[in-house]
Amino acid sequence: MDERLSAILGEVARRQGRIAVLTGAGVSAESGIPTFRGKEGYWTVGAQVYQPQEMATRAMFERRPEDVWAWYLYRRGVCRAANPNAGHHAIVRLERGIGDRFRLLTQNVDGLHLAAGSSPERTYQVHGNISFRRCASECGAAILPVPEEIPAKAKGDALTSAERDLLRCPACGGWSRPHVLWFDESYDEERYRYESALAAAREADLLLVAGTRGATTLPVRAGDLAARS
Protein backbone atom coordinates (compact mmCIF):
# COMPACT_ATOMS: atom_id res chain seq x y z
CA MET A 1 0.00 0.00 0.00
CA ASP A 2 1.19 3.54 -0.73
CA GLU A 3 2.87 4.98 2.40
CA ARG A 4 0.89 8.22 2.29
CA LEU A 5 -2.42 6.37 1.98
CA SER A 6 -1.40 4.02 4.77
CA ALA A 7 -0.65 7.01 7.00
CA ILE A 8 -4.01 8.63 6.20
CA LEU A 9 -5.89 5.41 6.94
CA GLY A 10 -4.02 5.01 10.19
CA GLU A 11 -4.84 8.55 11.28
CA VAL A 12 -8.55 8.19 10.45
CA ALA A 13 -8.67 4.89 12.33
CA ARG A 14 -6.85 6.39 15.32
CA ARG A 15 -9.45 9.15 15.50
CA GLN A 16 -12.28 6.61 15.32
CA GLY A 17 -13.34 8.10 11.98
CA ARG A 18 -15.65 6.59 9.39
CA ILE A 19 -14.30 5.26 6.08
CA ALA A 20 -16.33 4.60 2.92
CA VAL A 21 -14.91 2.81 -0.11
CA LEU A 22 -16.47 3.22 -3.56
CA THR A 23 -15.51 0.66 -6.21
CA GLY A 24 -16.12 0.35 -9.93
CA ALA A 25 -15.36 -2.01 -12.81
CA GLY A 26 -11.61 -1.47 -12.64
CA VAL A 27 -11.46 -3.45 -9.40
CA SER A 28 -13.15 -6.44 -11.03
CA ALA A 29 -10.97 -6.10 -14.14
CA GLU A 30 -8.03 -7.24 -12.01
CA SER A 31 -9.91 -10.54 -11.60
CA GLY A 32 -10.28 -10.89 -15.37
CA ILE A 33 -13.86 -9.64 -15.63
CA PRO A 34 -14.35 -7.37 -18.66
CA THR A 35 -16.51 -4.28 -18.34
CA PHE A 36 -18.94 -5.66 -20.96
CA ARG A 37 -19.28 -2.18 -22.41
CA GLY A 38 -16.86 -3.06 -25.20
CA LYS A 39 -16.76 -5.96 -27.66
CA GLU A 40 -17.01 -8.50 -24.83
CA GLY A 41 -20.53 -7.27 -24.23
CA TYR A 42 -21.77 -7.39 -27.83
CA TRP A 43 -24.55 -9.93 -28.33
CA THR A 44 -25.81 -11.34 -31.63
CA VAL A 45 -29.47 -12.24 -32.07
CA GLY A 46 -30.01 -13.58 -35.56
CA ALA A 47 -28.41 -11.06 -37.90
CA GLN A 48 -28.62 -8.22 -35.37
CA VAL A 49 -25.68 -7.28 -33.17
CA TYR A 50 -26.63 -5.45 -29.98
CA GLN A 51 -24.41 -3.30 -27.80
CA PRO A 52 -24.44 -3.62 -23.99
CA GLN A 53 -26.25 -0.29 -23.64
CA GLU A 54 -29.09 -1.84 -25.66
CA MET A 55 -29.13 -5.24 -23.96
CA ALA A 56 -29.03 -3.89 -20.41
CA THR A 57 -32.36 -2.07 -20.59
CA ARG A 58 -35.90 -2.64 -19.43
CA ALA A 59 -37.07 -1.85 -22.94
CA MET A 60 -35.02 -4.70 -24.45
CA PHE A 61 -36.17 -7.12 -21.75
CA GLU A 62 -39.79 -6.34 -22.49
CA ARG A 63 -39.19 -7.04 -26.20
CA ARG A 64 -36.79 -10.00 -25.96
CA PRO A 65 -36.70 -11.45 -22.43
CA GLU A 66 -35.12 -14.74 -23.49
CA ASP A 67 -32.26 -13.04 -25.32
CA VAL A 68 -31.59 -10.69 -22.41
CA TRP A 69 -31.54 -13.62 -20.02
CA ALA A 70 -29.15 -15.57 -22.27
CA TRP A 71 -26.80 -12.57 -22.28
CA TYR A 72 -26.93 -12.23 -18.51
CA LEU A 73 -26.39 -15.94 -17.98
CA TYR A 74 -23.27 -15.68 -20.14
CA ARG A 75 -22.08 -12.73 -18.05
CA ARG A 76 -22.97 -14.56 -14.83
CA GLY A 77 -20.79 -17.47 -15.93
CA VAL A 78 -17.84 -15.15 -16.50
CA CYS A 79 -18.32 -13.58 -13.07
CA ARG A 80 -18.67 -16.90 -11.27
CA ALA A 81 -15.47 -18.21 -12.87
CA ALA A 82 -13.50 -15.26 -11.45
CA ASN A 83 -11.85 -15.06 -8.04
CA PRO A 84 -11.43 -12.06 -5.71
CA ASN A 85 -8.13 -10.27 -6.18
CA ALA A 86 -5.75 -8.41 -3.87
CA GLY A 87 -7.91 -5.29 -4.02
CA HIS A 88 -10.98 -7.15 -2.76
CA HIS A 89 -8.99 -8.71 0.07
CA ALA A 90 -7.45 -5.37 1.07
CA ILE A 91 -10.94 -3.91 1.41
CA VAL A 92 -11.97 -6.84 3.61
CA ARG A 93 -8.97 -6.23 5.88
CA LEU A 94 -9.87 -2.56 6.14
CA GLU A 95 -13.44 -3.39 7.15
CA ARG A 96 -12.29 -5.90 9.75
CA GLY A 97 -9.92 -3.32 11.16
CA ILE A 98 -12.54 -0.65 11.88
CA GLY A 99 -15.77 -2.63 12.01
CA ASP A 100 -19.01 -0.69 11.90
CA ARG A 101 -17.27 2.55 11.00
CA PHE A 102 -16.75 1.10 7.51
CA ARG A 103 -19.06 1.06 4.47
CA LEU A 104 -18.50 -0.34 0.97
CA LEU A 105 -20.33 1.19 -2.00
CA THR A 106 -19.87 -0.88 -5.15
CA GLN A 107 -21.10 -0.43 -8.70
CA ASN A 108 -20.01 -3.99 -9.55
CA VAL A 109 -22.64 -6.70 -9.94
CA ASP A 110 -20.29 -9.70 -9.85
CA GLY A 111 -20.50 -10.37 -6.10
CA LEU A 112 -16.72 -10.66 -5.72
CA HIS A 113 -16.61 -8.32 -2.72
CA LEU A 114 -18.94 -10.64 -0.82
CA ALA A 115 -17.01 -13.68 -2.02
CA ALA A 116 -13.84 -12.11 -0.60
CA GLY A 117 -15.49 -11.68 2.80
CA SER A 118 -17.00 -8.18 2.82
CA SER A 119 -20.04 -8.21 5.10
CA PRO A 120 -23.45 -7.97 3.38
CA GLU A 121 -24.78 -5.53 5.98
CA ARG A 122 -22.00 -3.01 5.29
CA THR A 123 -21.88 -3.55 1.51
CA TYR A 124 -24.19 -1.55 -0.74
CA GLN A 125 -24.45 -3.18 -4.18
CA VAL A 126 -25.99 -0.15 -5.83
CA HIS A 127 -26.22 -1.77 -9.27
CA GLY A 128 -27.51 -5.10 -7.94
CA ASN A 129 -26.05 -8.60 -8.15
CA ILE A 130 -25.98 -10.68 -11.33
CA SER A 131 -26.46 -13.93 -9.41
CA PHE A 132 -29.92 -12.89 -8.19
CA ARG A 133 -33.30 -12.30 -9.80
CA ARG A 134 -36.64 -10.76 -8.96
CA CYS A 135 -40.13 -10.64 -10.46
CA ALA A 136 -40.18 -8.53 -13.62
CA SER A 137 -43.73 -7.44 -12.79
CA GLU A 138 -42.77 -6.48 -9.21
CA CYS A 139 -45.48 -8.75 -7.79
CA GLY A 140 -43.92 -8.56 -4.34
CA ALA A 141 -42.05 -11.86 -4.45
CA ALA A 142 -38.71 -12.00 -2.67
CA ILE A 143 -35.40 -11.55 -4.44
CA LEU A 144 -34.05 -15.03 -5.20
CA PRO A 145 -30.80 -16.56 -6.45
CA VAL A 146 -30.62 -17.48 -10.11
CA PRO A 147 -31.27 -21.26 -10.04
CA GLU A 148 -28.09 -23.32 -9.74
CA GLU A 149 -29.51 -25.79 -12.26
CA ILE A 150 -28.98 -23.21 -15.01
CA PRO A 151 -25.43 -23.49 -16.34
CA ALA A 152 -23.29 -20.69 -17.71
CA LYS A 153 -24.10 -19.82 -21.31
CA ALA A 154 -21.64 -19.59 -24.15
CA LYS A 155 -22.05 -16.69 -26.55
CA GLY A 156 -24.97 -17.37 -28.86
CA ASP A 157 -26.62 -20.01 -26.66
CA ALA A 158 -30.39 -19.75 -26.36
CA LEU A 159 -32.49 -20.67 -23.34
CA THR A 160 -33.87 -24.18 -23.18
CA SER A 161 -37.49 -24.87 -22.33
CA ALA A 162 -36.47 -26.08 -18.87
CA GLU A 163 -34.45 -22.91 -18.27
CA ARG A 164 -37.38 -20.73 -19.28
CA ASP A 165 -39.50 -22.50 -16.68
CA LEU A 166 -36.83 -22.05 -13.99
CA LEU A 167 -36.68 -18.31 -14.70
CA ARG A 168 -40.38 -17.80 -14.04
CA CYS A 169 -41.41 -15.93 -10.90
CA PRO A 170 -42.42 -18.61 -8.36
CA ALA A 171 -45.17 -16.37 -6.98
CA CYS A 172 -47.02 -15.10 -10.07
CA GLY A 173 -45.67 -17.27 -12.89
CA GLY A 174 -44.47 -14.34 -15.00
CA TRP A 175 -40.90 -13.69 -16.00
CA SER A 176 -38.31 -12.99 -13.38
CA ARG A 177 -35.52 -10.60 -14.35
CA PRO A 178 -31.87 -10.15 -13.41
CA HIS A 179 -31.52 -8.21 -10.16
CA VAL A 180 -29.46 -5.44 -11.72
CA LEU A 181 -29.96 -1.75 -12.44
CA TRP A 182 -30.54 -1.20 -16.16
CA PHE A 183 -29.51 1.83 -18.19
CA ASP A 184 -33.11 3.06 -18.55
CA GLU A 185 -33.91 2.70 -14.83
CA SER A 186 -33.28 4.80 -11.74
CA TYR A 187 -31.56 4.07 -8.45
CA ASP A 188 -33.76 3.43 -5.42
CA GLU A 189 -33.34 2.51 -1.77
CA GLU A 190 -35.56 -0.56 -1.64
CA ARG A 191 -33.72 -2.59 -4.27
CA TYR A 192 -30.26 -1.02 -4.39
CA ARG A 193 -29.80 0.80 -1.03
CA TYR A 194 -28.93 3.94 -2.94
CA GLU A 195 -29.90 6.43 -0.23
CA SER A 196 -27.95 4.39 2.32
CA ALA A 197 -24.92 4.54 0.04
CA LEU A 198 -25.18 8.31 -0.28
CA ALA A 199 -25.60 8.65 3.48
CA ALA A 200 -22.44 6.58 3.99
CA ALA A 201 -20.51 8.91 1.68
CA ARG A 202 -21.89 11.98 3.44
CA GLU A 203 -20.99 10.66 6.90
CA ALA A 204 -17.52 9.42 5.94
CA ASP A 205 -14.40 11.11 7.25
CA LEU A 206 -12.55 9.52 4.34
CA LEU A 207 -13.94 8.37 0.97
CA LEU A 208 -11.68 6.07 -1.05
CA VAL A 209 -12.51 5.57 -4.74
CA ALA A 210 -11.08 2.67 -6.75
CA GLY A 211 -11.69 1.30 -10.23
CA THR A 212 -13.93 4.04 -11.59
CA ARG A 213 -13.34 7.21 -13.56
CA GLY A 214 -15.96 8.95 -11.46
CA ALA A 215 -18.08 10.03 -14.41
CA THR A 216 -21.32 8.23 -13.52
CA THR A 217 -24.07 9.27 -11.12
CA LEU A 218 -22.96 7.50 -7.95
CA PRO A 219 -19.28 8.60 -7.90
CA VAL A 220 -20.25 12.18 -8.74
CA ARG A 221 -22.87 12.40 -6.00
CA ALA A 222 -20.84 10.48 -3.43
CA GLY A 223 -17.77 12.61 -4.06
CA ASP A 224 -19.78 15.80 -3.79
CA LEU A 225 -21.39 14.73 -0.52
CA ALA A 226 -18.08 13.64 0.98
CA ALA A 227 -16.43 16.93 -0.01
CA ARG A 228 -19.23 18.99 1.53
CA SER A 229 -19.33 17.14 4.85
CATH class: Alpha Beta
CATH topology: SIR2/SIRT2 'Small Domain'
Biggest sheet, open or closed, and with what strands and sense? 4 strands, parallel
- Spatial gap, N to C terminus: 26 Å
User: What is the CATH homology-level superfamily?
Assistant: SIR2/SIRT2 'Small Domain'
Whole-number radius of gyration? 19 Å
Number of strands: 9
Helix content: 40-55%
Number of domains: 1
Q: What low-confidence regions span 5 or more consecutive residues with pLDDT below 50?
A: none
CATH architecture: 2-Layer Sandwich
Shape: elongated
Number of helices: 11
User: Strand sequence of the main sheet, in spatial order?
Assistant: 5-4-1-9
Strand content: 15-25%
The SSE order reads HEHEEHHHHEHEEEHEHHEH
Structural class: alpha/beta
Mean pLDDT: 92
Task: List the keywords.
single chain, 229 residues, alpha/beta, SIR2/SIRT2 'Small Domain', four-stranded parallel sheet, three-stranded antiparallel sheet, 11 helices, 41% helix, elongated
Task: Itemize the secondary structure elements and their pairings.
Layout: H1 3-14, E1 19-23, H2 25-29, E2 43-45, E3 48-50, H3 52-55, H4 58-63, H5 65-81, H6 86-98, E4 102-106, H7 112-116, E5 123-125, E6 128-135, E7 144-145, H8 161-166, E8 176-180, H9 189-192, H10 194-203, E9 206-210, H11 217-228
Parallel strand pairs: 1-4, 1-9, 4-5
Antiparallel strand pairs: 2-3, 6-7, 6-8
Helix pairs in contact: 10-11
